[in-house]
């Protein structure tokens, strides 16, 4: 009889009182049951803390509240100080999992000792209407993915399941960077193989307070440039230059398009 490994699901919470219980319940409803839930509130001001303190006892999840430190520091603290699982998942407090997410990812990861990182497809949906916007990514890759991943991260950070040993080997999340999941993924790709579960097992809520929408395209590119600069030694110089150019064009194309539209008016 095989021992079922413990999976830790880490949920950083910030001003999502309206959504976070659905996120927690989606983990409680997993078909794979050997799961611990760790919630760290990062300075919410919307009543989340009081609600989570009350619900933690009833629903049985670990919970602490702290002053605002940012996503990366919150994730690292939750993983290092509170979680004990052999495998780790991340879940934003406004998103949620499909019921079979943990089970199917764990099955995929346990097929090979060379694989330490798993992601899935996602469904992006409109928070106001519930309407599905898209399923992504359409094109996925597995195995040695570093050369592809240095160009862009096609999957949502909330789809990730990673072995704790891999998290430890890369030093966790870089607390000085934005878009922390891409930087983390790049460093993981340098030390382990990836596998994708080709099913939408994660639900990404689209609304006005999504962090990427708040950042804006220019800040997003600058954040990406910092990540590429940090990790330039992991790939060939030509691949690194290509990655920088692709991201520059992607994050600035809308500026040129808008300029052309204004000229036509």
From TrEMBL:
GO MF term list: transferase activity
Record flagged with keyword Transferase: yes
Keywords attached to this entry: Transferase
Gene3D superfamilies, per database record: Spore Coat Polysaccharide Biosynthesis Protein SpsA, Chain A (3.90.550.10)
Coiled-coil parts of chain: none
Domain of life: Bacteria
Domain Glycosyltransferase 2-like: 8-167
Protein name in the entry: Alpha-1,3-rhamnosyltransferase
Source organism of this protein record: Marinobacter zhejiangensis
Lineage of origin: Bacteria, Pseudomonadati, Pseudomonadota, Gammaproteobacteria, Pseudomonadales
């Amino acid at each position: 009889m095989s021992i079922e490994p413990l999976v830790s699901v880490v949920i950083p919470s910030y001003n999502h009182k309206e959504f976070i219980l659905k996120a927690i319940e989606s983990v409680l409803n997993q078909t794979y049951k050997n799961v611990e839930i760790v919630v760290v509130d990062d300075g919410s001001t919307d009543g989340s803390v009081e609600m989570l303190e009350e619900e933690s006892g009833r629903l049985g999840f670990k919970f602490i509240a702290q002053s605002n430190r940012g996503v990366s520091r919150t994730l690292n603290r939750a993983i290092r100080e509170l979680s004990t699982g052999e495998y780790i998942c991340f879940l934003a407090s406004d998103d949620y999992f499909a019921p079979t997410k943990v089970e199917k990812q764990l099955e995929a990861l346990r097929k090979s000792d060379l694989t330490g990182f798993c992601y899935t497809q996602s469904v992006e949906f409109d928070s106001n209407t519930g309407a599905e916007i898209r399923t992504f990514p359409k094109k996925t890759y597995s195995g040695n993915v570093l050369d592809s991943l240095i160009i862009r991260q096609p999957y949502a950070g909330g789809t990730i399941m990673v072995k704790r040993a891999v998290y430890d080997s890369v030093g966790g999340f870089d607390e000085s960077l934005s878009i922390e999941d891409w930087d983390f993924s790049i460093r993981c790709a340098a030390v382990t193989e990836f596998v994708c579960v080709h099913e939408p097992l994660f639900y990404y809520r689209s609304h006005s307070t999504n962090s990427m929408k708040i950042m804006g395209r220019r800040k997003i590119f600058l954040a990406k440039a910092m990540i590429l600069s940090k990790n330039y030694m992991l790939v060939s110089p030509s691949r690194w230059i290509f990655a920088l150019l692709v991201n520059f064009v992607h994050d600035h194309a809308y500026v040129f398009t808008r300029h052309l539209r204004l000229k036509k008016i």
